[in-house]
Inverse folding.
C-alpha cells in the first residue's frame, strides 16, 4: 500500500518517551509506532517500521543482485551436528532447543555451517567456482544484556552473503566488489561511514573490515584519518593512531576517534569452514584443493536503528528519502468543505503519481498533527488549510531543514516526476 | 536477477531420486535443486526454490494489500507469559528455549497471542475498528514425524492475517472478503480447490473454512459436491454426504470424496484472545466490549509443495506461469559459432523484454539439457541449434502440453509483450 489514511493506521503515536528504554533509536521508534517491544531485546516491526525495514532490505537486495549473488533462504533450525563440525556448538550466543524426540538444534545466529554443508553438494570442480549466494533472514542471538533497542536484539534481520573461490586472488577480488556494493548501499541510505580494519578472528591473519557509522551511542570505538579516511577499530589500532596527537600511518593526516555502530562487515574465512566440512574441488591441474570462502554481513534492522541514532532532533526522526515510511505527510487543517476537498484531491493526485503519502485526516488539533508529522519524520510535510486554499497554494515543509514554502499543488506534483 | 546462465547456477540437478524422501514434492524439488534437506523436516530454499517461493509470496502480499491489510513483522521469540495467558504454553508443537538468564521462550508457530497483546495497545475505541494486519514469516512447529517434504516441515513460511472488529457483522463481512482474496490467490497460482467446512475448534460453534487442494498425497479427506462445490472436511461431514451414494445437502448433487492438502484456512476467533488479553473497546453506546477477531492463514512454502504434488509428470515439475522460476528455459545445442551467436542474441533480447530466462549454455549432451529442462519445469523450452538457425526459426516446446512448434525469434518475443 503506497498511501495510507492516518486514521486507519494500525499503530498510534505516543507522547511520552518509554520508561524502560534508554536507546535513542528505541525511544523514537516506539513513540512513533514503528516498533513494539515484546520482551527485552525482542521487537515487532509495526506497519510503519516494516515499511522502513523493507526499503532497506530492497536496497540491499538490489545491490547484492547487482554483484551476481543469488538469493536463497536457509533454515533457522540448525542441527547440533553442523555446529559440532565447526566447533561452535558451545558458543554463548546460540539458543538451543530440543525436539520431542530429543534431537538438538541451535537457532541460526550465522550460517557458515549451513552454507558450507550445502556447497559441498554442488562444488566439485574449478568450473563450479566462483559462486556467491546470500539470504535476508531473521537471526537469533542469546544476548545476555539485550539493550540499545534494535541495535542489539535477540532476534534481528541480517543479510548474509557467502562466496566461494578457487584461489585467494578470486576471494580478494570479490571481497573488494562486496565493499563497493556496501558503499553503494550506505550512500543510497545516506549513512556516513568509515571502513575500519578490525581483527580477523582466529582463522585469518588478515584484517577484516567493518562499516562503522560514527554515533555517540555506538558500542565500538574507531580511529580514523580526517584526510584519507583510513580507519581502524580500537581493538587493533596502530599505536601511532591512538596517541594523543595521532598521525595517520598512511598519509600523516590528523587522527580522530569516536564511538561508532558497526552496520556491516566483510570477512575472509579462508578454508576454515571448507576444512571443517570437507569442501574440496578439483583444480585445473588435477589437484584436490579446499574451497576458499568469504562471508559478508549487513544488518537491515540495525541500519534502521542506526539511521534514527544519527538522524533525529528533539521532535522526532528525520528519515532519508530512500527509506522513509512515506514521501509525504499530508496534513489537513480545518473542517471546511473547501480545504477538505483540496486535501482529498491532492491525496488522489499524489497517489496517481505513485507518491507514498500518509494523509492525516484525523479530527485532532493542528499541534497534534504537526507533532506527529515531526515524530514520524517523512521528508516533506504538506499542509492544506483554509488559508492555503484561499492562496491557491499548499505549504511544504522540509523535515530535515525546517524550510517552509508556499507553492502551487501543481508545482508540488512536478517534484515527484 | 531476472535471467541466469545455467552454468552459473549455484545448484545442480540430480538424476537419482533421493532415497530418504517419499513425498513427490520433496523428490522433484530436491532433484531439481529447488531445495536442500538439512534435517528431517528442515529445508533450505536454494536459489531456484527461492524464486518460486518469492513469487507465491508476492501474489499473497498483493492480494492482502488489496483488501486493506497492513503488513508487519512479529517476533519469533515469544515469551512464556504470552502463551500462558492463552493457555497454550503446553501444546506439543511449540519449541521451547531458555536464555542464559533462564527466561523461557516459545518459538512462534502462530501469532494470535502476540498480535492480541499488540492490539491491546492500539485499540481503545470503536473508532479504532476495524483493523487488519498480516505478516509473512518463518514459523516453527515441533512435528513428531516430519515428513511429506515441504508439506509438513518443522519450519515453514506462513502468511498470517488477523482482523479486529467491533461486532460479529463486521467480522463476517471481512471473513467473506478474505475468502474472496484467497480465491484470487488460488486462481493466480492455478490451483484447483474446494472450500471445505471444518470444525471450529474449542472457541466457536461456527465452522471454519479450509482451502483444500485435491491430491492423493493429502493428509485430509474432503467430501464435495460435483455440482455446487459445497464441501466438508471428513471430520465434520454430514452423514448424508459420507453415505456410499452421498447427496449434497445443498443441491442434491453427486458427492465425491478425496484426499486433499489444506493450503489455507479462515477462522473466526471471536473473543477468545481478546478475553485472554483483555482487549476491550468503548463502543458508540459508551459500553466496554471485547474486540472480535478473525485469523486467516495461508502457507506459501506449502503452496510450492502442493503445486508440485498436483502438477508434475514422470520427467519433472510443470510450473504454472505465475510462479515458475523462469518463463523460458533456453537451450543451446551444438558448438557452432552461428547457433551460439543466435542463442546469445535471443537471450539478450528476451532479457530486454523483461522475460525471465534460464539459458542452458553448458557443454553437455542434448539429452541432459532436455532432461533438466523437463525437471526444472519452466513453461516454455526454447531450442536454438544449427538446424533451427538454418530454418531462421526457434523451436518452442510447451512444458505442460508437450506441443512443439517452429516459430521465428520475433514471434517468440512478441509472446511476451
Amino acid at each position: 500500500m503506497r498511501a495510507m489514511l492516518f486514521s486507519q493506521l494500525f499503530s498510534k503515536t505516543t507522547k511520552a518517551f518509554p520508561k524502560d528504554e534508554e536507546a535513542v533509536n528505541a525511544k523514537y521508534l516506539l513513540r512513533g509506532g514503528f516498533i513494539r517491544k515484546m520482551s527485552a531485546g525482542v521487537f515487532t516491526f509495526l506497519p510503519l517500521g516494516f515499511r522502513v525495514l523493507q526499503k532497506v532490505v530492497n536496497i540491499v537486495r538490489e545491490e547484492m543482485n547487482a554483484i551476481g549473488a543469488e538469493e536463497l533462504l536457509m533454515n533457522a533450525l540448525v542441527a547440533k551436528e553442523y555446529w559440532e563440525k565447526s566447533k561452535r556448538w558451545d558458543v554463548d550466543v546460540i539458543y538451543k532447543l530440543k525436539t520431542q524426540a530429543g534431537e538438538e538444534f541451535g537457532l541460526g545466529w550465522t550460517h557458515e555451517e549451513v552454507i558450507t554443508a550445502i556447497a559441498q553438494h554442488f562444488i566439485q570442480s574449478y568450473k563450479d567456482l566462483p559462486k556467491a549466494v546470500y539470504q535476508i533472514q531473521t537471526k537469533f542471538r542469546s544476548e545476555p544484556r539485550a539493550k540499545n533497542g534494535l541495535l542489539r536484539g535477540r532476534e534481528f534481520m541480517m543479510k548474509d552473503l557467502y562466496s566461494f573461490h578457487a584461489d585467494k586472488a578470486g576471494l580478494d577480488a570479490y571481497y573488494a566488489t562486496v565493499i563497493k556494493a556496501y558503499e553503494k548501499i550506505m550512500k543510497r541510505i545516506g549513512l556516513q561511514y568509515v571502513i575500519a580494519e578490525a581483527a580477523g578472528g582466529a582463522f585469518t591473519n588478515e584484517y577484516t573490515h567493518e562499516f562503522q557509522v560514527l554515533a555517540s551511542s555506538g558500542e565500538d570505538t574507531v580511529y580514523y584519518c580526517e584526510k584519507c579516511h583510513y580507519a581502524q577499530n580500537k581493538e587493533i589500532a596502530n599505536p601511532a593512531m591512538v596517541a594523543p596527537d595521532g598521525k595517520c600511518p598512511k598519509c600523516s593526516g590528523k587522527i580522530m576517534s569516536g564511538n561508532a555502530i558497526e552496520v556491516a562487515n566483510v570477512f575472509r574465512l579462508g578454508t576454515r569452514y571448507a576444512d571443517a566440512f570437507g569442501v574440496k574441488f578439483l583444480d585445473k591441474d588435477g589437484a584436490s584443493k579446499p574451497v576458499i570462502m568469504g562471508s559478508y554481513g549487513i544488518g537491515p534492522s540495525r541500519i534502521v536503528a542506526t539511521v534514527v541514532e544519527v538522524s533525529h532532533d528533539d521532535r522526532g526522526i528525520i528519515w532519508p528519502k530512500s527509506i522513509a515510511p512515506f514521501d509525504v505527510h499530508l496534513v489537513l487543517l480545518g473542517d471546511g468543505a473547501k480545504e477538505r476537498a483540496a486535501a482529498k484531491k491532492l491525496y488522489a493526485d499524489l497517489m496517481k503519481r505513485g507518491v507514498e503519502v500518509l494523509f492525516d485526516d484525523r479530527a485532532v488539533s493542528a499541534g497534534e498533527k504537526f507533532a506527529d508529522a515531526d515524530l514520524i519524520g517523512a521528508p516533506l510535510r504538506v499542509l492544506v488549510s483554509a488559508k492555503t486554499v484561499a492562496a491557491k497554494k499548499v505549504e511544504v515543509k522540509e523535515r530535515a531543514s525546517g524550510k517552509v514554502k508556499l507553492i502551487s499543488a501543481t508545482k508540488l506534483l512536478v517534484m515527484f516526476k
In short: Chain B touches chain A through 60 residues (CB under 8 Å). The radius of gyration of chain B is 25 Å. Residues 11-313 of chain B form a domain with the BirA Bifunctional Protein; domain 2 fold (CATH 3.30.930.10). Chain B has two domains: 11-313, 326-414.
